[in-house]
Amino acid sequence: MGHTTTGVAVLAGEAARARRRGAVSRSRIALVVAVCAGTMALATADSTAAVLSLSAMAELAGARVPADQAPWMGVAYLVPFAALLPATGRLADLLGRRLLLGLGLGLFTVSAFAAAVSDSWIFLLAARAGQGIGSAAMIPASLGLLLCELPTARRHMAVAIWSGASGLGGLLLHAGGWWLADGYGWRALFMPSVAVGTVLLLAATGLPRSRGSRGRLPDPLGLSLLAVGTGAAALAVSRGAVWGWRSPLFAGVLVGGLLLVAASVRRSRRHPVPTVDTSLWRREGFALGWAASALYGMTAFPLLMVAPAYLREWGFAAAQVGPIMVAVFAGLVIAGPMAGWMCRRVGPHWLVYGGAFLVGGACLALLTGSGPSPLWLAAAEVLGVGLGTLAIGAFTVGTLGAYPSQYASAVGTHMTAQQLGGIVGVAVASALVETPILSGPMAGYTSVFLACLILSLSGGAFALIAIALSGRVGRRARHSGRARHPSRELRPGRPTRKPFSIRAPRNPRSARPARVAVPLGQAVPPPQAHEQSDMVAIPRRVLIGLRAALVDVATVADALLPPEGQAGERFGCECHPGLDPLAARLVHEALAHESLTAQAEVFHEDTSPETATALPRRGERRSIETGPIPKIVDLPEKPAGAPGPLLRVPSSFGAGGESSGGTPGETPGASGASGETSSAPQHRRIDA
């Protein structure tokens, strides 16, 4: 047999492959951010297109659209959207966010095309309802997928980018919507949604797969109760001004919807796979984020609805209203990166406080103005920045406190609060326009501005109180935590030494290292367990490859160790004469433990020219050095009375195989010519 060598080689291209993996990871994150942020921008742009289409729509199918039916254009979208948001968020967490995102994008795109080619009012309302259902599926799934794919340190910026994308969609439609409507008609306002939705749907096929936390569907009865109840409450509030706020119809639909929602929540507390994840409300900051989202809806929706009509009352043409509204949405875009940067430094609670007071300042500027002035443009910009900051703070407080398996559910719940708050705000604003509480010119619009001013200042004050309470609770928890940890206290009778500083284990993504002061002679406090969001998921194939590599390294190390045993004894056996003493010791120790079956594999690479370039056959394993690992052969049957199971060893195991009297590669104890087995091997221990 030719000369053999044993060793472990490191592949030269490992660094290059690592760089390629990093480039693939960055490109995948870029794709996730682009698709998820584009989804939010698409939904906002389509809502803007629907509002503009009502103004541009003169005739439909030869007849004018009834003026009293025009609000149904928004109701047909908002009611299914608000009704399905909590349910679709829960489905995204259970079934997979990529699946719900793709289904929502597909339904939204098809419904947008149906709205563009509709030839009747009823068909247009049905298409808008389809868009509402699609938006309800894709919006929670988009933010949930974005938060799960990005590292913990970048999730604040992810929420900021996602929220700022909504302002970008509204900005583009307000800037170019009137040009599309004047040149190509109201149907052209829905064609950008069709084109962008198709591109996002194709790009979504390249997103990473996201498995749900469970394979079962949530409670179908609870899901139906939640959807019908939320939709009924949204319908009652949106049509309350038409039905009458004191009418039995309004009261019956509203109370019935609330009772259905309460029944769904009650059923979710006992069901194994609940529709409403009630554990979210026990997470820190979730209730505050939900209230901030409702505050955003109650202020943003009325202001964005009243502002165009207010400008037209002052004599602005419809085409001149668009550039002024662009300033509002430009402020939303600016607030995205600015709020993401501030969130990492001051915390999301301060964003809620600052955004609410910025909105209040803009409303105060509109109240004090006596007519069109350049101050309005600045107030519009401040209003956009305030609304964007408030929205980002609300989503960050409410969603990042949840576990990654609950992100889509948290987003759906906060979006529901935002939509219900918006519906309530629009209903109250419509009532104030009809019956103002102030006097003077434009009394109805100024009454709406005053109500939004009071809401925003109240929300900012509550946010400031929450900041103060959270700081006090945090300090109290830290003090009580030090008192409860006995390892942090000095033991009685021991001298106090000067404490030294050690670097505690931290997340490698963290920007600042954490230090813990521990006095000498004390036990270091155990590191706090990371949350589920900081856990690293390792694929199974990587673990299998790591185990195989460790087996190869351990086998080579065993072959290279000197044949030494403990002092005063040596091991040998007649059944395995080809094994060195150390290997024989390991074999007999394994035989002594009946529950352990050892498997030893040693690779001897044949460096002869005939086999140097030979490729392995299909199915053969290869070692780190590109040579095939010897196949495993079984020893003879276990003799009667043997202490344990016989080992399965390679046919070429051991460097001293020639000493057994057979040829290298044969099983010890087996005849190489006739194939007859020898007598049963006898195990014995030889003491020095």
Automatic annotation (TrEMBL):
State the annotated membrane topology for this chain: Multi-pass membrane protein
Q: Where is the Major facilitator superfamily (MFS) profile domain?
A: 32-471
Q: What InterPro entries does the annotation carry?
A: MFS (IPR011701), MFS_dom (IPR020846), MFS_trans_sf (IPR036259), Sugar_transporter_CS (IPR005829)
Transmembrane helix listed as a keyword: yes
Top-rank taxon: Bacteria
Q: Where is this region: Disordered?
A: 476-513, 600-688
Pfam families membership = MFS_1 (PF07690)
Q: What are the protein's UniProt keywords?
A: Membrane, Transmembrane, Transmembrane helix
Provide the Gene Ontology terms for cellular component.
plasma membrane
Q: Give me the stretches of Low complexity compositional bias.
A: 503-513, 665-680
Gene Ontology terms, MF aspect: transmembrane transporter activity
Residue ranges annotated as compositionally biased, kind Basic residues, are: 476-485
Matching entries from Gene3D superfamilies are given as: MFS general substrate transporter like domains
Protein name stated in the entry: Predicted arabinose efflux permease, MFS family
Q: What is the lineage of its organism?
A: Bacteria, Bacillati, Actinomycetota, Actinomycetes, Streptosporangiales
Q: Where is the composition biased (Gly residues)?
A: 654-664
The organism of origin for this protein: Sinosporangium album
Major localization listed first in the record, in broad terms: membrane
Membrane-spanning parts? 29-58, 70-87, 99-117, 123-147, 159-180, 186-208, 220-242, 248-265, 286-311, 317-338, 350-369, 375-403, 415-433, 445-469
**Where is this gene product found?**
Cell membrane
Q: Establish whether keyword ATP-binding is in the entry.
A: no
